[in-house]
Amino acid sequence: MMKASALGVLVLFAASLAFAQGAKTVTLKGYVVDQMCAKTLAKKENVMEKAGAHTRKCALEEGCTESGYGLFSEGKYYRFDDKGSEKAKAMIEGSKRESALMFEATGSVDGDMLTVKSLKEVSGKPGKGEKPKS
């Protein structure tokens, strides 16, 4: 019985260590697009070009804002958590850009979900920054 308990504790420790390593902080740079439009854009060729053409006006339409936001970086879409989507909406509302909504997001990635710690509008080319290890 004691060996089984010790083994159980060891397994739980290893699992928590693996989880902690998976929560590495990353910084991604790319185009912020609402999740509703991102589903369509992800199916197209030249996804980064299409994401750059996505407009501020579209991103602020009711259905689009309700779907939440995310970031296209190096051809992959990362959905923002709820707080990240709230930050993105506020920043899009305050942006002077009509399209090419380029942002840098820092946070932790789990699959295609980015838990946003910080978000800022930037210029330049998408993809610069530290991408998550798959």
Tell me, rounded to a whole number, the average pLDDT.
84
Contiguous helical run count: 6
Q: What summary fits the major beta sheet?
A: 5 strands, mixed, barrel
Shape verdict? globular
Q: What is the strand content?
A: 25-35%
Class by helix and strand content? alpha+beta
Strand order of the largest sheet: 1-2-3-5-4
Order of helices and strands: HEHHHHEEHEE
Distance between the termini: 38 Å
Q: Which radius of gyration do the C-alpha atoms yield?
A: 18 Å
Tally of strands? 5
- Low-confidence parts lasting 5 or more residues at pLDDT below 50? 6-18, 128-134
Classify the helix fraction into a percent range: 40-55%
Protein model, in words:
With 134 residues, the protein is an alpha+beta fold. It has helices at 2-22, 35-41, 47-53, 56-59, 62-67, 82-94, and strands at residues 25-34, 69-73, 76-80, 102-110, 113-121. Strands 1-2-3-5-4 form a five-stranded mixed barrel. β2 and β3 form a beta hairpin. The longest helix has 21 residues, at 2-22. The chain starts with a helix and ends in a 13-residue tail after the last strand.
Structural descriptors:
134 residues, disordered C terminus, 28% strand, five-stranded mixed barrel
